[in-house]
Amino acid sequence: MQKNLTARSVIIIVIILVCAFGIIGFPKSTADLKKNWDNNIRLGLDLKGGSHLVLQVQVQDAVKAEADIVINRLKEDLKKQNISWTSIDRNDPQRVEEADDVTITIKGVPATQSSAFRNLVNERDSDWVLTTLNSTDYSMKMKPSQLVDLKRDTVERTVQTIGNRIDQYGLAEKSVQQYGRAGDQYQVLVQLPGVDDPARVKELIGTAAVLEVTDVKDGPFPTRDAGLSAHGGVLPLNTKLVKALPRGGGEGEQWYLVGRSPVITGRDMRNARSGQDEFRKWETNFSLSQDGGKLFGQYTERNIGNRLAVVLDNSIVSVATIQSKIEDSGRITGLGSDEEATDLARYLRSGSLPASVVYLEERSVGPSLGADSIHQGFAAGIAGLIGVVAVMLVYYKRSGVNAVLALILNAVILLAAVSYFHAALTLPGIAGIILTIGMAVDSNVLIFERIREELRAGKAVVAAVDAGFSKAFLTIVDTHVTTVVSCAFLFLFGEGPVQGFAITLVIGLLANVFTAVFVSRTIFSYELAGHRQMEALSI
Amino acid sequence: MELFKSTNFDFLRWKWPFIGASLVLSAAGILSIVVHGGLKYGIDFKGGALMTVKFAYPPPDDKIRSAMSQKVKGEISVQDFTDPASVNEVAIGTELQEEKLLNVNRQTMADVLTATFGQPSSGKLDFNNASTQQLIDRLRDPLARAGVALSQPQLEKLVGDILNFRNTPPRSGLVTDFTQLSAVPGVNPAIINTLKQECYLAPFNIRNVEMVGPKVGAELRNKAVLATLYALAGMLVYIAFRFEWIYGLGAVIACFHDTIITIGLFSLFNKDIDMTVIAALLTLVGYSMNDTIVIFDRIRENLKFMRREPLEVVMNRAVNQTLSRTVMTSGLTFLTVIALFIWGGPVLHGFSFALVCGIIVGTYSSVFVASPIVLFWHNYADARKRRTGPAPAVAPAQRAEPVRNRPTRAAK
User: Fold this and answer.
1) Chain mean position to CA A228
2) Which residues of A touch B279 (CB under 8 A)?
3) Is pTM beyond 0.90 here?
4) What are phi and psi of B90, to 5 degrees?
5) Is the pLDDT of residue A207 over 80?
6) Which residues 137-166 in chain B show a CB within 8 A of chain A?
7) Contacts of A359 in chain B (CB under 8 A)
8) What is the predicted ipTM?
9) CB B208 within 8 A of CB A373
């Protein structure tokens, strides 16, 4: 028994030390202690203040972009093989739910060339399924497995890009993660503690940011109508008129006629930054992905002297003339100022969101409200706890001390878990903690009442403690397992805050079984060990 | 100290009045929900924009409402906080027709407030609603001109300290006079003068903005309800496995009963149901379940050596044996929750209200809802068995069982 007791005590002390280290580390001074505490016990946005945004990735954009690439490639391939066609188009779904409906329709392929056509498509575009509509028309849809991959990849890239973009602004704490069940909602959760200005946050993330680099056919025109009338009121095939963003030089509106299908898009853009050339003039350097570089190289080689426009969300941010073949990296020179070069670099970088995003939810808790809620919630929690401790001590006397020690240890383990899991303490989490503490109190009460009953039935102290613990243990297991079962379901089917509640509760329950049964039992054993023949227990 | 020593109350004799009370409460709650045309959801579940604004004086609700209605479409709600901890605070809610308006709405609401209560034409910055970056940008040059030489990090620290001072209670976001700022370390008269020149003090502070698209709101609500239902089903299965299926059913019906009454009370008191309330409902389900299982556990234990007693006596005995712990646990939990309810502040208000109701209802439902359900079923099953008579084919097998006169009561 004595040896057993020592082993138990060692286990308890080790766990206490591990937990204490998790919460406060190795503080060397009181200032250190506070710093470590603040670092380890992070508060959620609802308590600390900050911005919380949920956005939805418009995955249909990515599927459409993929379809555009296939269309371009198909046209080139068909030309090479001398297969004729009348039109190749895709539909234009606007909603996320319709992303799977993106379809390419090919019309007017002569019946005599149908087998050559089908061979070509099956060979070159194996990710797409070709369906024959009639003897000359076909439709193509992306394979379901490819669709799933593409959509997942799009969301992942969006998460990464937004994360990088926020990093550039040097925010210390941020969290960007996929949100929603199994990713089928294509939602991204962005949390920025301490950022008190959501307008700035949105500016950081960039709203839609579909970046395209397209060829400039004509312009600039002072108005849209001027652009139209220059072409006899009808735009040439596959072109559109796009307005340039004003550059503050007071030059008025500028419209350009640009190609409808981009040469490269934001997907091909790797990085961009501002710099100065040999004549100390401002310029923006950019680099492209391998595939993008190949495409861009072919295009720029053929079009030296022509102009290119950088189009962000249907507005031109910059127009430049191609001076030489550009492959995987290039520069846009002759910019007016450092600011202009930096802005352009930012535009180019921001363009690498693979799809546009729509905001679904935005919350910002002002730091003053956060400060108040901590203040009040903390005061109330402490007041409640003091009441509980006082009642336990009065009602159960010496044994009450056991319960209070077990309660404190429970809270310490919970806080340590929060720290080790890098979780943040939020209101629903605190709800879980309150239920935990309620159940911790309950476990102790159950045991003590049981011991009292056994004492009343005339058992000796040691036997009563033994019986009390073993009988109450069954009940404690039942109540705890039931709650753990419910937590499992809440975690599986719930979302966000509900999951947070479930996790805190499960950790709390495990800690509870440990403290109420194991630790409390050990303390009792210590008390009894010295006095085998103890006649009265302070309970 | 002991409150209850070997009590012997006949709890189940009083089951009918309590069941009646439960039915009346549930009916009143459901009726109130029907009369109100459904539950009053908070912004989390309904979608919309909600702005919490603290004013320097009692908020002029009508003025706010009329100013808002000129710029924002749809229904506009302006609600004062009754909580003593949030004096002069008001919640302004507007509807969001579609997700796309999320961006526009916030700005519009803030602009309306500035136009109505601030001094937008002065060209100065509203100090009470300025962000750190705005204030840094605004003060950099004027401070230099006023002869206060600060490096960028120094300026950032100064502005951070000033805004921190503004945000901590008792200011809680509202500074009414720039001279208050002299309490901030590092602030000298020159800085206060510059602040006075560059900024003004609007009589309000936007403390909190929440915007939820309508689609997300409905989705969140459905998911929370589904998760809770699955959790209840999970508990039913577990208890059925550990006890008997009727015990599981009784416990789950009791939890359901508690949830319905609590939600009904929310409807009666016209309180919003938001995410924190859902967290509270989950807590109370856990709590009520815990309470019920403790009693069931004791019933199961008693059944082992009280085989010949009627089930009602066994149950009464179990309730009496656990009475002390029920009162202690409920009382202590209630103590914590009531502290949260009184001092916890507006954010925790709905949460603690749900728990206050839930603990009261949850405690008595274990005794007066869950146990009677088990009792009724067993009485019914026994009566049916007696009616059908001791069929010879069954009788020998039954006689072989230890629990002869109450075969359906046997606990695993």
Assistant:
1) 44
2) 427-428, 431-432, 497-498, 501
3) no
4) -140, 145
5) no
6) 163-164, 166
7) 99, 102-103, 213
8) 0.73
9) no
State the Cα–Cα distance between residues A474 and A471, nearest whole angstrom: 6
Contacts of A487 in chain B (CB under 8 A): 231
Task: Give long-range contacts, CB 8 A cutoff, 24+ apart: B379-387.
Answer: B379/B311, B381/B408, B382/B406, B382/B408
Superfamily of domain A2-48+366-529: Multidrug efflux transporter AcrB transmembrane domain (1.20.1640.10)
CB-CB contact of A267 with A65 (8 Å): yes
Give me the CATH topology for the region A59-146. Answer: 3.30.1240
Question: CB neighbours of B67 closer than 8 A, spacing ≥ 6?
Answer: B112, B113, B115, B116
Decide if B168 touches A, using CB distance below 8 A: yes
Q: Please state, in angstroms and rounded to a whole number, the distance separating the CA atoms of residues A295 and A289.
A: 10
Half-sphere exposure of A240 (CA within 13 A, CB side): 12
CA pair distance A163, A156, nearest whole angstrom:
11
Phi, psi angles (nearest 5°) of residue B9: -75, 145
Asked which of A261-265, A366-370, B312-316 is least confident by mean pLDDT, the reply is A366-370
| Residue A100 C-alpha, separation from nearest chain B C-alpha, in angstroms | 20
Q: How many Å is the maximal CA-CA distance in chain A?
A: 111
Residues in chain B: 412
Rounded CA separation A20/A38 (Å): 14
Indicate yes or no: CB of A369 within 8 angstroms of CB of B347: yes
Torsion of CA B132, B135, B137, B140, to 10 degrees: -120
Q: Which residue carries 């507005």 as its tokens?
A: A315
Q: Which pLDDT tens digit goes with each residue over B64-91?
A: 888 888 888 778 888 887 766 677 888 8
Q: Which of A33, A54, A36, A37 is nearest to A45 (CA)?
A: A54
Pair A428, A497: CB distance under 8 Å: yes
Nearest residue to B93 via CA among B223, B2, B217: B217
**CB nearest to B223's CB, from A428, A442, A494:** A494
From CA A423, how far away is CA A195, in angstroms rounded? 19
Cis peptide leading into residue B310 (ω within 30°): no
Query: Inter-chain contact A494–B169, Cβ cutoff 8 Å?
Result: no
What size, in residues, is chain A?
Answer: 539
Cis peptide bond N-terminal to B170, omega within 30: yes
In angstroms, rounded to a whole number, what is the distance separating the alpha carbons of residues A175 and B122? Answer: 38
Contact assessment for residue B41 and residue B394, using Cβ atoms and an 8 Å cutoff: no
Q: Mean pLDDT by 10-residue block, N- to C-terminus, for chain B (412 residues)?
A: 76 88 92 88 82 88 88 82 75 78 76 86 85 82 84 84 84 85 87 89 86 79 85 89 91 92 91 83 87 92 88 91 89 86 78 89 90 92 80 42 42 46
Encode pLDDT of A517-535 as tens digits: 889 888 888 888 766 666 6
CB contact under 8 Å between A486 and B212, yes or no, is: no
Assign domain A211-361 to its CATH architecture. 2-Layer Sandwich (3.30)
* Closest to A457 (Cα-Cα) out of A449, A469, A538: A449
Q: Are B175 and B54 in contact (CB under 8 A)?
A: no
Give the per-residue pLDDT at B292: 92
d(CA B253, CA B369): 8
Residues B333, A438: C-beta atoms closer than 8 Å = yes
Give the start-to-end residue ranges of the domains of chain A.
2-48+366-529, 59-146, 211-361
* Nearest-CA distance A530 → chain B (Å): 25
